[in-house]
Amino acid sequence: MSTPKTPFAPAEPGIAAGSAPGAPGTAPDTGDALADAFAAEYSVRPIPAAGPVDTTPIAGTPAALDSLDALWKAVVHETRTRGNDIHLPISLAFAERLCRAYPDADADLVRVATLLHDTGWAHVDESRILSEGFTGDWRKATIRYEHEKQGCDVARRVLPGLGYAPGFVEQVCAIIDGHDTRPVARSLEDALMRDADRLWRFDHAGIALASSWFGMDPATYTDRLAAEIIPELITGAALEMATADLARSNALLKTAVIR
């Protein structure tokens, strides 16, 4: 496994650090030491891509590496909850694109963290997932914290037996823990996983699934993507991909008319 290019804190219970707005085009001062160090290293936002940016439909470039097949097989049970068998493969495909656009990132870490980040949903009360995790101030819902903790438990259970070093496992957990509930990224790898987790929503498959979670029709949901999710993207590559995908999905789903 390669060595991460940016520091990581040990996984800890996700407590969202407050963030103050920064100047346009810059990362804000968050009060989170690791996040602030990352922001100082990558001060221009969205972070410009250093490699190629592929904005073609994601179906044309599925996650290509079979080196993760054993990991997929180890978490089949976890993929059968909350649409993870759709969400996670698409997110991983976007993660691989982002790694090509940001070659300084530890691609192994980004891929494994992306594959595992939502596996914790399989180990929480399924009846609470939609009622608590996708309504109101959903980022602060208790079940969101629970699924992050459970995702770390999954990582610590399955990764050592597949040959991953303890330090690498904890770096994966540091990304999983807080990926929904902590508002800021603490490393480039963390940022790429977060952007991949958002990018799948812009594909028509993601819109079809996620709009139902939030109880929205596709037109309302795509409006939300434009207003709320695009501004959350951290990297320039993700912004380009999301913008292209959203335009394609709006055209395909006729959201300008069916609303």
In terms of structural class, how would the helical and strand content be classed? Answer: mainly alpha
The largest β sheet comes out as:
none
Number of strands: 0
Query: Which fold name fills CATH's third level, the topology?
Result: Hypothetical protein af1432
Q: Number of helical segments?
A: 12
Regions with little confidence, pLDDT below 50 for 5+ residues = 1-24
- Beta-sheet strand percentage? under 5%
Structure description:
- This protein is an all-alpha fold.
- The protein has a single domain, classed as Hypothetical protein af1432, CATH 1.10.3210.
- The protein has 12 helices and no strands.
- The longest helix has 18 residues, at 84-101.
- The chain is globular and about 50 Å long.
- The chain starts with 32 loop residues before the first helix and ends in a 6-residue tail after the last helix.
Key traits:
259 residues, mainly alpha, Hypothetical protein af1432, disordered N terminus
Give a short summary of the structure.
With 259 residues, the protein is an all-alpha fold.
Topology:
Layout: H1 33-41, H2 69-74, H3 76-79, H4 84-101, H5 107-116, H6 126-133, H7 142-158, H8 166-176, H9 188-199, H10 204-213, H11 218-229, H12 236-253
